[in-house]
Amino acid sequence: MGITRVGFIGLGIMGKPMALNLLEAGFALTVYSRSRAPVDSLVARGATAAPSPRAVAEASELVVTMVTDSQAVEDVVLGTRGIAEGAHAGLIVADMSTISPSTTTRVAAALAARGVSMLDAPVSGGETGAREGTLTIMVGGDARLFEASLPVFKAMGRKVVHMGATGSGQLAKLANQILVACNMAGVCECLNFAARAGLDAEKLIDSLSAGAASSWSLTNLGPKVARRDFAPGFKIKLLQKDLGYVLSSAEEVDAGLPATSLVHGLYGRLVEEGLGELGTQALVQAVEALSRGRDGQGGPRRAAPRE
Amino acid sequence: MGITRVGFIGLGIMGKPMALNLLEAGFALTVYSRSRAPVDSLVARGATAAPSPRAVAEASELVVTMVTDSQAVEDVVLGTRGIAEGAHAGLIVADMSTISPSTTTRVAAALAARGVSMLDAPVSGGETGAREGTLTIMVGGDARLFEASLPVFKAMGRKVVHMGATGSGQLAKLANQILVACNMAGVCECLNFAARAGLDAEKLIDSLSAGAASSWSLTNLGPKVARRDFAPGFKIKLLQKDLGYVLSSAEEVDAGLPATSLVHGLYGRLVEEGLGELGTQALVQAVEALSRGRDGQGGPRRAAPRE
Fold it and tell me: What is the ipTM of this complex?
């Protein structure tokens, strides 16, 4: 018998469309979220609202959590009226948030002590992927549990990969964010250089997208950088949160991240300037700030610092 | 009447297969190279050997130069028995080497003084692209000259883009190398982190290649990094030469390149260690060196430096 009763906690920009895809796939869905509007919207489509994470757990065989950060996962799982209080035989928690792998390990251990199993299953693919059910889902945890949960994941994602033991889904997601950060730096440095050198950005992106310089970032965010469209696909403050997890995890395993650390520092300046709500492509503003004093108001008129 | 008599100077790893594609496309080809072997090989396929760049110029309507660096271009164009000495009405020089844009501008001006036109037309796509005629060719110079030369370029490349005035082909190629450097840093930091965290590299590359972290570097060089295959597709010493041009050009236009400068510094350490002949994916060795003392022989056992 496969899983039929699924719970969903956290109906934000990502969570709501993911939950809708579970409904469409025919799962009996019980939901909980801090905001009222998405709950009402899901209930109108056939979901049942629950008054707490505990109540979601009591009603479900598998509970998905899709919340903002490590602290939020600890709260909904281990807090008052949390999932752990609704523990019952066979319950699986699939945390699809991006959080620190060490928190994942700690939460999984706390759940295991109550007989509840946990998978970490963070996603990539953004809001579009969530809506279209084309997310990549990187899963850590027991292999049999993974197999049992696969139909649930398949309703939300196109590529679902079992990465290994508990925490390895989160580690894979952090590895993803290393690439996202470095590729974005390349795009912003490239296009700022091109603009200052007088090149046509559109022609340049077109010619570079065919070869060894190509990346998802260049194709999808390069044109936004070129036309100074900083509306968020993925917000700086969220990437910055993830890069914080990347840096602390890297410290634990003693992995050098010189370029990623540099990009984290550049994003940090933008956050300090209150630009954390912009899309990650606004990194170009930090690169520009290294290039010339802004707004003609002076500042260093010299080239980039050298190693 | 289109161009039929083409000259080719510099039959190295890139130049030789490019010249062969010109022969196959039916151009009457006159060649010169410092090494004897590729000249003999081209002659056996129907090319004519010339004793000097000057003699190549005298026999040709358009001369391609494909040599190692700025100095080599100055030598074959402006040196003794160089192309400039073989100047004649209507001669076009198409320099397909990657060199500094300021050298391009200087050489173009010197040629113009003798009535010779020049296009800068550096390529991306590597040895494979050269062999298969699928190079991307980024061209700077007069638009009519570009149109007249297009059939020659089309015999060597798939995507041929007119970027703008003299020097803009080189600037576009340098923009390409900024992306190549930053994307490679991302791949190496990602896979070193993954290895230390105990993730399966093959599964990771597979799952990340589908989404927002994807790049040509991840797909094509990531697997080589994972299996520690450092055989060169593109050699560190050549990318390092190009990054030198990038940094000096960026200084001229006052463009900040924090990540690219960092990567240039990391590659510099590998060159100092005598590893310049390795492929660019060996950047992972510099990242590893920041992670732990090598070979268990001590060294800093701390995490990466932070911004």
Answer: 0.93
Give the nearest partner residue to A210 out of B136, B179, B307, using CB atoms.
B136
Q: What are the tens digits of pLDDT across the range A65-89? A: 999 999 999 999 999 999 999 999 9
Instruction: Report pLDDT for A303.
Output: 38
Q: Which chain A residues have a beta carbon less than 8 Å from that of B177? A: 213
β-sheet bridge partners, residue B31: B8, B49
- All domains in chain A, ordered by first residue: 5-165 (3.40.50.720), 171-295 (1.10.1040.10)
Distance (Å) from the alpha carbon of A85 to chain B's nearest alpha carbon: 32
Catalytic member of A173, A203, A224, A235? A173
CB B49 within 8 A of CB B18: no
Coil/strand/helix, residue A270: helix
Name the residue type at position B6: V
Pick A304's closest partner by Cβ from B257, B289, B301: B257
Q: Phi and psi at residue B208, in whole multiples of 5°?
A: -80, -20
At residue A3, the 3 state secondary structure works out as coil
Name the pTM for this structure: 0.93
CB contact under 8 A, B204 and A129: no
pLDDT band at residue B19 under the 50/70/90 scheme:
very high
Across A219-229, average pLDDT: 97
Contact B204 A302 (CB under 8 A): no
B259·A259 Cβ contact <8 A: yes
The residues, ordered by sequence, that sit 6+ positions from A127 with a Cβ below 8 Å of its Cβ are A13, A14, A17, A233
